Fold this sequence. Notes:
By secondary structure, chain A is mostly beta strands. Chain A has strands at about 5, 10-15, 20-25, 30-40, 45-50, 55-60, 60-65, 70-75, 85-95, 100-105, 105-110.
Amino acid sequence: DQQVKQNSPSLSVQEGRISILNCDYTNSMFDYFLWYKKYPAEGPTFLISISSIKDKNEDGRFTVFLNKSAKHLSLHIVPSQPGDSAVYFCAASETGGGNKLTFGTGTQLKVEL
Amino acid sequence: DTAVSQTPKYLVTQMGNDKSIKCEQNLGHDTMYWYKQDSKKFLKIMFSYNNKELIINETVPNRFSPKSPDKAHLNLHINSLELGDSAVYFCASSQVGPGTSGYEQYFGPGTRLTVT
């Protein structure tokens, strides 16, 4: 039973354009959400997070949007750069869960020149 | 200056063997984790230790035994290895404190275990 889903296994975007990565969750107890980026043969790297008390968090080129009623979050990357090409994982956690992260299956982003 | 390091990076072994993977973090974090990424790229938590105390133990076979000698180290020992144990194992750490929720975890580079 996968509680965090990323339905698009891959996404291709041109350099300079916006990349939008999507994530859906089913567990209404989740109250903290994170995005991680992963390059081949490396561990995931924390990118940006959002608490359920907010609906938007921005950090430079990266913005995460949270729609609690739809149990949906998205990561926007503007403008996309070739170095952004990586696998992006959405993760979720709940208060009292011992900091346990539940991950989605990832979306491979390719930014083309 | 690696923040979270794991050894070895690659491990190839035969079924039935016992092996260990070591993890060290120099971030001063008080919580460490082991995750398994299977062939479908699904990243799932196995264990979590806070100040050397086990706080998360997912439904992992008891052939897997974590050991935390101090809060900077969390090792994973696997007995009687099976083909299905082949995966990439990631160690991670985090810290709850001012300015952080504790959910932001820092990952090591992973150990690719292949059981033949």
